[in-house]
Design a protein that fits this description.
Layout lengths: L1 H19 L8 E5 L9 E3 L2 E4 L2 H6 L14 E5 L2 E4 L2 E3 L4 E5 L5 E5 L16 H4 L3 E3 L5 E9 L3 H6 L16 E3 L6 E9 L5 E3 L3 E5 L2 E4 L1 E6 L2 E5 L2 E4 L10 E5 L9 E4 L2 E4 L10 E3 L13 E5 L2 E2 L20 E5 L17 H4 L4 H4 L8
Parallel strand pairs: 1-3, 1-4, 4-7, 5-8, 6-9, 7-10, 8-10, 9-11, 10-12, 11-13, 12-14, 12-15, 13-16, 14-17, 15-18, 16-19, 17-20, 18-21, 19-22, 20-23, 21-24, 23-25
Antiparallel strand pairs: 2-3
């Protein structure tokens, strides 16, 4: 009895401290999410509105119409636990800050083949398969995991005649959509298989993140900097083709797409076949001719799963017509060859976070 009371008191003091003191000078916590909370959603615990679900905390965030860089963040502190929720962020300047990267897990398991809810007919498609959708500016995620919980390996093992087997298994963990811009992911683990990260709208910064997947697992039309991240390929069990790291659909009006800076391209399993993963392929949604994908790797370390060709075609569009480049690659996967286009030192100077993000400087 005393131990439970002491633990409750310690938790209250911790939350009170979280509410009163910001991290690295940033905004203090305005709300707490705790899966163990037994009171009403939004009830005050040590003066802090506390929720059982992240969705309820997001719904209670300010519906400000003046979102923008420099506006104070509404910080939601999420305690360790698994939160099976399909989330949509439609309010600006929201931060989800986890108690720990591996202990705070946001998960859901829709796939492209999942029927639309409410008997509307049809399926969700890739865009609807997300765990979290960001459709507002200045979203931050820190020190947590966002996963797509669909068990694709188990689905692949099912017999072809099994009615429960999904055929279209695109499964997005994070989608940036519509009004998203200036999205920051710091010390976040993004986990999935096919189409893990759909960075499709606005500017993004990923710092010290871990991103796992196999087919086109970083894709979309947005501008994104991945700095000091681990990009981890998962094994499909194919000796020749275990997927593609990127599938950018950058519009030709945008000079930049995805920039990987001082990052590591790793393999989840030592058994992943050597030379079986491409750096990327050009995605032209609906056959759009103006989608001239851009993906550039600067000063990155690559394990031996990266193929000698480096880049592959997609749906009839050639990799050499896209904006695919490297500079300063090293490691066993950094293989010189005619299809691995290397920037000069002068050219590489044009690929900086400031240029890709058009002057925006994330506060991380």
């Amino acid at each position: 009895m005393f131990a439970r009371a002491f633990a409750a008191a310690l938790l209250s003091l911790t939350l009170l401290g979280c509410a009163s003191a910001g991290r690295r000078g940033r905004a203090s916590y305005q709300a707490v999410v705790d899966a163990r909370h037994t009171g009403a959603e939004g009830a005050l615990v040590s003066g802090v509105p506390t929720f059982r679900t992240i969705g309820a905390a997001l719904a209670a965030a300010p519906a400000a119409t003046e979102g923008g860089e420099g506006r104070p963040q509404h910080v939601i502190y999420v305690r360790n636990g698994r939160y099976r929720e399909k989330l949509s962020v439609s309010r600006p300047n929201v931060t989800l800050r986890g108690e720990s990267r591996d202990g705070t897990v946001l998960t859901y398991d829709d796939v492209a083949d999942t029927p639309k809810p409410g008997g509307a007919g049809g399926t969700l498609g890739t865009r609807g398969s997300y765990t979290i959708r960001v459709a507002a500016p200045d979203f931050h995620a820190e020190s947590l995991t966002i996963e797509h919980g669909f068990d694709l390996p188990a689905n692949s093992r099912k017999a072809e005649g099994d009615p429960t087997k999904r055929r279209n298994t695109q499964a997005v963990a994070v989608l940036t959509d519509s009004a998203s811009d200036r999205a920051v992911f710091e010390n976040v683990r993004l986990s999935g298989y096919q189409d893990t990260l759909f960075a499709n709208a606005g500017r993004h910064y990923f710092g010290r993140c871990v991103i796992l997947g196999h087919v086109d697992f970083i894709f979309g039309a947005g501008q994104a900097v991945f700095e000091e991240c681990d990009i981890v390929s998962r094994d499909r069990g194919d000796p020749l083709n275990n997927g593609y790291v990127t599938a950018p659909s950058t519009r030709d009006t945008q000079p930049y797409g995805f920039l990987f800076l001082r990052s590591r391209l790793l393999k989840e399993s030592p058994a992943l076949a050597k030379g079986s993963v491409a750096l990327g392929r050009p995605w032209h949604p609906g056959g759009r001719p103006d989608a001239i994908g851009s993906a550039v790797f600067v000063d990155c370390w690559m394990d031996d799963h990266i193929s000698a060709r480096g880049w592959e075609p997609m749906s009839g569009f050639r990799a050499e017509d896209a904006r695919f480049y490297e500079y300063g690659s090293r490691g066993p996967g950094a293989i010189a060859g005619p299809t691995r286009r290397v920037l000069s030192a002068a050219e590489s100077a044009n690929y900086t976070p400031e240029k890709v993000l058009r002057g925006w400087r994330p506060l991380v």
